[in-house]
Amino acid sequence: MNANTQEKPIYMDYHATTPMDPRVVERMLYYMTQAYGNASSTDHVYGDEAEAAVATAARQVATLLGTAPRNIIFTSGATESINLALQGHCNARGTCQQIAVSPIEHKAVLDTCQALQEQGKATLTWLHVDQQGRIDLDYLREVCQTGIDLICIMAANNEIGTIAPIQEIANIAAQYNAAYFCDATQGAGKIPIDFDTIGITYLALSAHKMYGPKGTGALLIQSDANLVPLIHGGGHQRGMRSGTLNVPGIVGLGEACKLRYQEMDQDEPAIQAKRDHLQSLLQAHIPQLVINGDLKHRLAGNLHISIPGLDNSMLIARIRHQLAISTGSACTSGIEAPSHVLQAIHLPTDLIEGALRISIGKFTTDTDITTAAHLLTQTYKAIMQKHDQ
């Protein structure tokens, strides 16, 4: 049997992207095939229907994240949202901004911050994290006392799954009159986030991390925040992000947010139970297995492991047609360099080389869990046996 006729591999790379919920697909299809109007063309009913759909999606995003629809700007995804927030913040102020940034942020945040520093628009101060990827809040306070304009700390890490204490971070930001940018790409729809109550200034998210479509995201902006837009022309979205709105994508994001709001509280504990079962099965057969991240505060679907003495790329190569997992972030997996997240938490070299990111979600079955555990343990043992010969 050739690879094309085999069953598809078990999918356990939910942090890279999630499968789309069929209910989201169905909702989007109507706006692709029937209600295809331009949301800005309000001289006829096609445009009216599209405009109403965008307004509904804004309410759905706002409901999930605890804010008002007027605070939402639709974008092409989290990377654009991140750039709009960080570049827009610095460009609006004219003076070199002091930015305190976590070293385990996604590359979209780190690279944007680095670019702003190279342009002379920002000076970066690197925050401290411990071996579980937890922010040193005392050091954050120390840094803020020196004068910080903007804090960049994600809601949950995309590799090791550690969840940040965003309320405490926001409190510190408010105490020192700093803006707080939160990359919630992995957290939105998985952990409760109340944008207004917490006091976050800017928040980025992407539909495809919560069972929605790729190519659609949003930036939440507090009403008193001041940003310079990146994209000009037409004055769409209150001038903050011009361009014809991607109505089917926005509808998909809204529907995904609606479903997460309705089902997150029941889905996430079920996902966590499956993750814990997979972890137990692997630990039972691989005694030296190391679990990375904060075991008490991590995403329900995250299992980031290291196996000493294992070449992770060798294991991936052997199982890639049966099991879809990764060695790290999807945005950097094609780059031959150790994970910056694992380096920042000072993981020993042998554990970095043997690191695997397994991420599951609402469509992962109990059979998937037991089959994956068997594949991983048997493949690991085969590699080590050959290595010892």
Automatic annotation (TrEMBL):
Q: Which InterPro entries match?
A: Aminotrans_V_dom (IPR000192), Cysteine_dSase (IPR016454), PyrdxlP-dep_Trfase (IPR015424), PyrdxlP-dep_Trfase_major (IPR015421), PyrdxlP-dep_Trfase_small (IPR015422)
- List GO molecular-function terms, semicolon-separated: cysteine desulfurase activity; iron-sulfur cluster binding; metal ion binding
The domain of life is Bacteria
Q: Which reaction does it catalyse?
A: (sulfur carrier)-H + L-cysteine = (sulfur carrier)-SH + L-alanine
Q: Does the keyword Flavoprotein apply?
A: no
Cofactor(s) demanded:
pyridoxal 5'-phosphate
Question: What keywords are annotated for this sequence in UniProt?
Answer: Iron, Iron-sulfur, Metal-binding, Pyridoxal phosphate, Transferase
Give the stretches traversing the membrane.
Answer: none
Outline the extent of the Aminotransferase class V domain. Answer: 10-369
Q: Which family does it belong to?
A: Belongs to the class-V pyridoxal-phosphate-dependent aminotransferase family. NifS/IscS subfamily.
Per its record, how is this protein called by name?
Cysteine desulfurase IscS
Species for this entry = Dictyobacter vulcani
Tell me what gene encodes this.
Answer: iscS
